[in-house]
């Protein structure tokens, strides 16, 4: 399976999943290990990519779509362009896919420190500077259950740490001071009530 081919396939063929937003209890749960690498898992991953690209987001963890299992999808490279379809409606053209799936991931080493602005599909409209390791080495399994290791840097490293936190029931705002976190959450919930959005 070639990752680049997977990307375009996911965006064309998936099914949109509901993304749970804070304070959904599932976001606080520690997810369980993936044990069977079956058709069901492949389908889940495909739908997660579809949901992620459509949002659009650069990462999506299974608990965010209501599944408390240890896996997340990532693509820090794809590009999305707004285009007008033949019938005049708005559409998006996607390119430069680099779809990656991390199943049962573990960070086995980390180096350096970096501060970067992060957002999260479970906190729409919230962007905050978060401190993370600059590079991480991750051991994980792919869709076939094979164990792989990768060293990540830049946006990819930040994203891996953000998504891995989701598997442990940690949302990115928990990396902030309690006071700052409380303020942001209060503001977010006020806005959410106004919008009347669910999740
Ligand atoms: Co997130």
Query: How far apart are the termini?
Result: 34 Å
How many alpha or pi helices?
4
Strand order of the largest sheet: 1-2-5-8-9
Number of strands: 9
Which parts are unreliable, with pLDDT below 50 for 5 consecutive residues or more?
Answer: 1-5
- Mean pLDDT across the residues is 91
Fraction of residues in β-strands: 25-35%
Q: The biggest beta sheet, please?
A: 5 strands, antiparallel
> Cα-atom Rg, whole angstroms?
17 Å
Fraction of residues in helices? 25-40%
Query: What order do the SSEs take from the amino end to the carboxyl end, as H and E?
Result: HHEEEEEEEEEHH
The bound ligands are:
cobalt (II) ion
What does the overall shape look like?
Answer: globular
Task: Put the structure in a nutshell.
The protein has 199 residues and is an alpha+beta fold. Helices cover 30% and strands 27% of the residues.
Question: What are the defining features of this structure?
Answer:
binds cobalt (II) ion; alpha+beta; globular; single chain; 30% helix; two-stranded antiparallel ribbon; 4 helices; 199 residues; disordered N terminus; five-stranded antiparallel sheet
Provide the fold topology.
Blueprint: H1 3-13, H2 39-54, E1 59-61, E2 71-74, E3 79-84, E4 90-95, E5 100-111, E6 114-118, E7 128-132, E8 135-141, E9 147-152, H3 154-167, H4 178-195
Antiparallel strand pairs: 1-2, 2-5, 3-4, 5-8, 6-7, 8-9
Helix pairs in contact: 1-2
Cobalt (II) ion binds next to helix 3.
